[in-house]
Write a structure and sequence with these properties.
42% of the residues lie in helices and 24% in strands. With 136 residues, the chain is of the alpha+beta class. The chain is globular and about 40 Å long.
């Protein structure tokens, strides 16, 4: 039992102290009736942005288990970006999300929620459960 508690404590500390960013953007994937939409358009944009802007690594976390139909959130660290890069990143991310929401079937497809003015802090993420890093 002690080994299990120790292992969980080490993993928790590693995840918490491994975070580089202090501020994160949140993208929520919600279901209407038939599951959540794909995160492929957003992930494709992130890969394109990294390549074009020559950003080494974006810090991305996924929080799963938020609903019965697979709802989840993505958190993207923005502290490694310059002010110009951050503004361009947010504009492009908003465009990718809007494009995906406009192409969806209103009656059955889920929706992607993104509010560029909502910033999630490292302290907020440290309290989140079911949080896993995504490697790009």
């Amino acid at each position: 039992m002690k080994k299990v508690v120790l292992t969980i404590a080490i993993f928790g500390c590693t995840l918490f102290f491994g975070q580089k960013s202090e501020n994160y953007l949140q993208i929520g994937y919600a279901s209407v009736c038939c599951g959540t939409p794909s995160d492929k358009p957003v992930m494709d944009y992130l890969a394109k942005f990294q390549k074009q802007s020559k950003v080494k690594n974006l810090e991305i976390y996924k929080q799963s288990g938020l609903g019965r139909e697979g709802e989840y959130n993505l958190y993207i660290g923005t502290d490694g970006l310059s002010k110009t890069q951050k503004n361009n990143f947010i504009k492009g991310l908003k465009a990718a999300v809007d494009s995906q929401n406009n192409a969806r079937s209103k009656n059955s497809d889920g929706i992607v929620n993104f509010n560029e003015s909502e910033i999630i802090t490292k302290a907020d993420l440290s309290k989140a459960r079911n949080l896993t890093p995504i490697k790009k």
